[in-house]
Design goal:
40% helix, alpha/beta, 7 strands, globular, 192 residues, Uracil-DNA Glycosylase, subunit E, binds uracil
Length: 192
Amino acid sequence: MDKIGENSIGYSMYQYNQSCTRCIALAFSRNRITWGYGNVESPVIFVGEAPGKYGCDITGIPFTLDKSGEYFQSMIKAVGWIKEQVYVTNLVKCCPEDNRTPTVDEIKNCSSYLNLELVKIKPKLVVVMGKLPMKALLNKDGSIISLWDKVFDKDDCKYYIIPHPAFIVRDTKHWGEYYLKSFKKIKELVNG
Ligand code: URA
């Protein structure tokens, strides 16, 4: 039985706030702030790194329009969900110039937004997609491959590490099958 609500409506928690200036560089580089999006009653939150210049920096919805967004959504669909049923967000809500990696200070400046999302939604499972959220949320360094598929307990919640979709998109022939297995496991962890 699938415990994710089927009639939920995609919802962006701070959608009307487009004025954050905590990071001056990001306030200039972004097209718009991309807040988390989806079902605020979802038992699972997916956390990516930062909006992509050719994807959600244009749409304002995480993991849409670009290749990694499309790939992420294909995984969600492959396990029988749609993106409005779950909640998807990023560690950093603004796109850095030329898609550079966000700095440690930018991650810190933005952290209270993600913390609020976690406190409000109280998920059962947080899916940590990539090295940056792995470091920020679990203080784990090292290769994403060695930590892929590991589950950690923190604050009455499970944290599950998988690579960022952009990593998989570069070589779906090699990694696609394992990535799909991870999404099946995510569904099991949510429903179990
Ligand atoms: N990459 C991310 O990390 N997040 C998005 O929302 C899109 C691409």
